[in-house]
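Supplementary notes for students who missed Thursday's class. We covered one full example, reproduced here. Read the sequence, then the structure, then the short commentary at the end.
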Amino acid sequence: MASRENGDVCGQDLQKHTEHRAPGRRISRWGPQHAGARELANLYSPGKRCQEWISVILCFSLMAFNFSHLILNFHLSHIWYILLGIVAGILTADFASGVVHWGADTWGSVDLPIFGKAFIRPFREHHIDPTAITRHDFIETNGDNCMLTLIPLANMAFNFCTLSSAELYRSYPWHCYIFALAIFVTLTNQIHKWSHTYFGLPWWVTVLQDCHVILPRKHHRVHHVSPHETYFCITTGWLNYPLEKIGFWRNLEDLIQGLTGEKPRADDMKWAQKTK
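Structure (token representation):
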């Protein structure tokens, strides 16, 4: 029932533009019943599921290991560096979420070998069926982002095992930055999922959204107005307004289109227009 209500709310607020007409027939509204959404959902494979499970297990194991060593190596003299590192990590994660989101939304194709079905497919599905993410479990929602953090978390763990106490003291602020960055990168898709969930959220998630500590629901609606060409940052959304004001994404698209001749979001529109 909650998923159906979520779909109704998002459909009313975001997809008023999505009843299209083709010659002699009417195309279904975007959502779970859309032909493109069904086809994209069916491309989710057992191999992909296995990769997500492994990524989640390794990521959270490394996080627990690194957090314990951050606690053991804590010094009160680091407090301001820790706060600065956390803020910098959040901003970096927000910008990184925008770059990845923009890149996967705007360029490439589901037909690309390996990468297309594994990583571009969820972005195409999400624009046709924005509530699909609310029906994904924890593993499917967060598996890919967990994979992205494995190398920096593993390197951090290696440093804790090999560096001297003096070296760890000097590098502690950097490790705090990397750890904050890894946490918010890992949580980006979960935060994104919450921004599409209109019922049943824990109270503390709603408070964080209302305080704009994480991506608010109303803020993210801006991105879901076709053709989905703005507000790509989905961790906190703090950088969306300044990047939009300077035309950051638009200028990048113009540059790439001028150099390659590729049209932005062509593959996205192909899936949106599927009828069967």
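Commentary. The beta strands are 21-22, 25-26. The two ends are 27 Å apart (CA to CA). If anything here is unclear, bring it to office hours.
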